[in-house]
């Protein structure tokens, strides 16, 4: 049985399309992408300049991840990246500096954002949602959520159904325990108190009342 390919390359009338899997880790993706650009498909990775479109599926790249991909493509001077696109339906909520994204994060998938995120959908067991700011899940949080990944200990994690396998805020990690099995009739949020992660009801989140008004639509 052949191993699943995480990088597929297709020719189009406009150039080349790179289809990048969203079911593997980013490091695995980078390794395979580098291998193919250095050692494979030489018949069309050399020669005249070709335009490249990169599709990342349900993987939202951070600016750092995009830059790593662009650096790898510099191996081939004839390949010019025209666009890097994902399939997530999102728009910026500029008033509150929150990005709104809808979908489902499945096992093995990692979504990472460089701003606070309002995720409309479920984070399944094995799914990962990371943000430099706050995380709001209008749905069930049953995977891993890490808010404040840049060290912001004031970040929070809120969910309509709070049943995570692990919560992280800044450098603190909370492993599964009984108190994370949320009440399905109550929306809850996690925050840092002292040197540990605590849980409270969403209505106590008064300092973010503008976001709370929108979050409550999932109640």
Automatic annotation (TrEMBL):
Similarity section: Belongs to the MinC family.
Domain of life of the organism encoding this protein: Bacteria
Gene Ontology BP annotations: cell morphogenesis; division septum assembly; regulation of cell septum assembly
Gene this chain is encoded by: minC
Residues annotated as domain Septum formation inhibitor MinC C-terminal: 100-198
Subunit field text: Interacts with MinD and FtsZ.
Domain (Septum site-determining protein MinC N-terminal): residue spans on this chain: 7-84
Role: Cell division inhibitor that blocks the formation of polar Z ring septums. Rapidly oscillates between the poles of the cell to destabilize FtsZ filaments that have formed before they mature into polar Z rings. Prevents FtsZ polymerization.
Species name: Tepidibacillus fermentans
Listed InterPro entries: CAP/MinC_C (IPR016098), MinC (IPR013033), MinC_C_sf (IPR036145), MinC_N_1 (IPR055219), Septum_form_inhib_MinC_C (IPR005526)
Coiled coil ranges: none
Keywords: Cell cycle, Cell division, Septation
Protein name: Probable septum site-determining protein MinC
Pfam families: MinC_C (PF03775), MinC_N_1 (PF22642)
């Amino acid at each position: 049985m052949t191993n699943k390919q995480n990088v597929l390359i297709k020719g189009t009338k406009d150039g080349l399309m790179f289809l990048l899997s969203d079911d593997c880790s980013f490091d695995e993706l980078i390794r395979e992408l580098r291998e193919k650009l250095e050692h494979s498909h030489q018949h069309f990775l050399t020669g005249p300049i070709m335009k490249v479109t990169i599709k990342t599926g349900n993987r939202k790249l951070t600016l750092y991840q995009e830059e790593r991909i662009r650096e790898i493509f510099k191996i081939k001077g004839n390949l010019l990246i025209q666009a890097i696109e994902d399939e997530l339906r999102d728009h910026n909520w500029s008033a509150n500096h929150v990005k709104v994204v809808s979908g489902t994060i499945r096992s093995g998938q990692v979504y990472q954002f460089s701003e606070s995120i309002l995720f409309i959908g479920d984070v399944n067991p094995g799914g990962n949602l990371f943000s430099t700011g706050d995380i709001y899940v209008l749905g069930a949080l049953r995977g891993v959520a890490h808010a404040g990944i840049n060290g912001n200990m004031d970040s929070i994690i809120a969910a309509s159904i709070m049943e995570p396998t692990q919560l992280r805020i800044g450098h603190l990690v909370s492993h599964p325990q009984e108190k994370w099995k949320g009440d399905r009739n109550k929306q809850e949020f996690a925050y840092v108190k002292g040197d540990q992660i605590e849980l409270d009801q969403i209505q106590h989140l008064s300092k973010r009342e503008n976001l709370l008004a929108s979050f409550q639509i999932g109640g």
